[in-house]
Amino acid sequence: MPLPQRSPSYLQKIEDGHLNNSLGSPVQADVYFPRLIVPFCGHIKGGMRPGKKILVMGIVDLNPESFGISLTCGESEDPPADVAIELKAVFTDRQFVRNSCVAGEWGEEQSSIPYFPFIPDQPFRVEILCEHPRFRIFVDGHQLFDFYHRIETLSAIDTIKISGDLQLTKLG
């Protein structure tokens, strides 16, 4: 028996340079992608500021080891860009660790969480809400932890990087 085909609702459409969900048929679109490509690197227009929220929706791979979401100050690799927050889901330890790297120095890693929210082969929704003193991290609508800013100039945080064992379905 053949595998069922996915409906076009998971496809992404580019309109005026912005990613949007599309429920239309591929005939109506200019450009479609089966999914956002991982590893992903994208620009955060205007950088971060209090009240701004980053949304990452995806599906965890069937046999994941880890995946990461980082907000950085640019894309530079050499010298490396400052990392305002790096979130890493580690499935072997059932940990969701976070850290930052300022001027080439990694800070103290934080790992305490009330529960591990990610399940192999299941969808998830991560929201990173920027507030004045901290980032608030929500997974599937539940606040999981806070991470206090180590980068003082929030507007310099202008890049999102996503890698690892997941498929991206939406960014916002």
TrEMBL record:
Source lineage: Eukaryota, Metazoa, Chordata, Craniata, Vertebrata
- Keyword Cytoplasm included in the entry's annotation: no
The chain positions of domain Galectin read 40-172
Function summary: Does not bind lactose, and may not bind carbohydrates.
Q: Which top-rank group of organisms is this from?
A: Eukaryota
Q: Which UniProt keywords apply?
A: Lectin
Q: Keyword rRNA-binding: yes or no?
A: no
Under Gene Ontology molecular function, one entry of this record is: carbohydrate binding
What is the protein named? Galectin
Write down a Pfam family by its short name: Gal-bind_lectin
Gene responsible for this protein: Lgalsl
